[in-house]
């Protein structure tokens, strides 16, 4: 066990060196490899609201806290974070300094690739039984870290990315499928499971968040009874469908005001609110300040939620 720990430490140290070098000119790098982003932060952050997409997140150096509903997930250079569906979270970098900056990676995935891998492979049984949540932390292994290292190395040889990146990503997904969160990963990917049915409804809701919400229609999309759907939805997201929709609306309104420079009333209408006063009240509760003040504050600081 001690030898494994030292080997993992060395692997993470090498990965940290690579991420540090590639992010020395900024806090965020969306790389030439589809789905791979690199992150750097030289001081702890305030709690930041954002949306995690289906992805696996590693921290090569530092630590982060992610809040999903009432659940808290801590991960660092010994653990990865797995987000199986789009989930509204509050994320905070809790360990970072100029001498030892927070260095993170995020790799998004498409379940079609996971399904194809499962169909092509005779996977061994998962290590642990499944859980209901769409988010989990898992223990890093040397094999998984080494695969991420090879993927990051391709950023220095971009001509090789189209051929080699899909091969390495396939290995990463394989390592996840047979790892300690493999059961969760498989349940979300496998057609016909309750997890996959709820994930289908979440995808629809994410695309239609501005429409009036009818839980029975969402349940129909998921091919479930209403009460069964409501139970599985909350189990996966830690939120009710209505709470989830509210998070989507508020985050989209925030993005519209920040990037498109539109006023609060227009943003509220575009995301589905009929009452500006209700929007202002819920926005203040969610982000800790009224829209105008919050957007002003955001423009005075770099905002980065992810990986």
From TrEMBL:
SMART domains: HTH_ARAC. Residues 199-297 form the HTH araC/xylS-type domain. This is Transcriptional regulator, AraC family. InterPro entries: Homeodomain-like_sf, HTH_AraC, Tscrpt_reg_HTH_AraC_N. Gene3D superfamilies: Homeodomain-like. SUPFAM superfamilies: Homeodomain-like. It comes from Malonomonas rubra DSM 5091. Keywords: Transcription, Transcription regulation. One of its GO terms (molecular function) is DNA-binding transcription factor activity. Transmembrane segments: none annotated. The keyword Transcription regulation applies. PROSITE patterns: HTH_ARAC_FAMILY_2. The keyword Transcription applies.
């Amino acid at each position: 066990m001690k030898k494994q720990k030292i080997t993992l430490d060395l692997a993470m140290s090498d990965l940290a060196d690579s991420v540090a070098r590639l992010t020395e000119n900024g806090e965020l790098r969306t790389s030439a490899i589809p789905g791979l982003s690199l992150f750097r932060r030289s001081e702890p952050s305030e709690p930041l609201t954002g949306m995690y997409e289906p992805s696996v997140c590693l921290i090569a150096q530092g630590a982060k806290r992610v809040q999903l509903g009432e659940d808290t997930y801590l991960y660092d250079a010994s653990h990865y974070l797995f987000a199986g569906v789009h989930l509204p979270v509050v994320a905070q970098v809790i360990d970072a300094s100029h001498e030892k900056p927070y260095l993170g990676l995020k790799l998004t995935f498409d379940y079609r690739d996971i399904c194809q891998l499962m169909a092509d492979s005779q996977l061994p049984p998962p290590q642990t039984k499944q859980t209901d949540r769409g988010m989990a932390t898992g223990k890093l292994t040397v094999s998984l870290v080494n695969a991420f290292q090879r993927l990051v190395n391709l950023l220095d040889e971009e001509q090789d990315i189209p051929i080699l990146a899909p091969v390495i990503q396939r290995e990463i997904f394989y390592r996840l499928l047979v790892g300690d969160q493999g059961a969760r990963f498989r349940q979300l990917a496998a057609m016909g499971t309750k997890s996959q049915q709820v994930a289908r409804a979440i995808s629809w809701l994410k695309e239609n968040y501005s429409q009036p919400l009818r839980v029975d229609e969402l349940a129909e999309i998921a091919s479930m009874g209403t009460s069964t759907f409501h139970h599985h939805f909350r189990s996966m997201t830690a939120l009710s469908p209505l709470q989830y929709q509210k998070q989507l609306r508020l985050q989209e309104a925030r993005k519209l005001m920040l990037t498109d420079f539109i006023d609060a009333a227009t943003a509220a209408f575009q995301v589905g609110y009929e009452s500006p006063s209700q929007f202002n009240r819920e926005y203040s509760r969610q982000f800790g300040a009224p829209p105008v003040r919050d957007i002003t504050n955001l423009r005075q600081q770099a905002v980065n939620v992810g990986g």
